[in-house]
Design brief:
Keywords: Acyltransferase, Transferase. With 151 residues, the chain is of the alpha+beta class. It has three helices and seven strands. The two termini are 25 Å apart.
Length: 151
């Protein structure tokens, strides 16, 4: 597996991001969807990576800088054909390494509270993320779960 910076112009990545947004829409009401679209992922405070096996896209993830010491995980997605093969764990490890390289003191995330998000919550908990209250511009929402990890 190779994790590459960017690649937002690749058709495979664009299709995976569409799948991600569609999946969020199937599980969450519109007002509770915080996933970024292609334009949102191209903002200067966002860094995006995609995971590949040769020319086969495995998944993606992004890191948003909230301030000099705090980052947020965004757009974690594993391609359907590659689920349960360690792609999400590898991407999460990459994001944690990048957050440490940037000397963040905290890394946070928002995910859904519905059953469909349980695998993601278990993954984050396995890597030491604890449940917390809303951070940044988020508000309490019964459809959202917030998690954070001190680095």
């Amino acid at each position: 597996m190779q994790i590459r910076a960017g690649q937002l112009d690749r058709p495979e990545v664009i299709a995976l991001l569409r799948e991600h947004l569609q999946g969020m829409a199937e599980l969450s009401p519109p007002e509770s969807i915080h996933a970024l679209d292609l334009d949102g992922l191209q903002r200067p405070e966002i860094s995006f990576w995609s995971a590949w096996d040769g020319e086969d896209l495995l998944g993606c993830g992004a890191l948003k800088q909230l301030d000099a010491g705090h980052g947020e995980i965004k757009s974690m997605r594993t391609a359907q054909a590659h689920r349960r093969r360690g792609v999400a764990a590898a991407m999460l490890e990459h994001l944690l390494e990048e957050a440490a390289r940037r000397e963040y003191r905290r890394l946070s995330l928002e995910t859904g509270s519905m059953d469909g998000f349980e695998p993601a919550r278990r993954l984050y908990a396995r890597y030491g993320f604890d449940y917390c209250g809303p951070f940044a511009d988020y508000r309490d929402d019964p459809n959202s779960v917030f998690m954070s990890k001190a680095l």
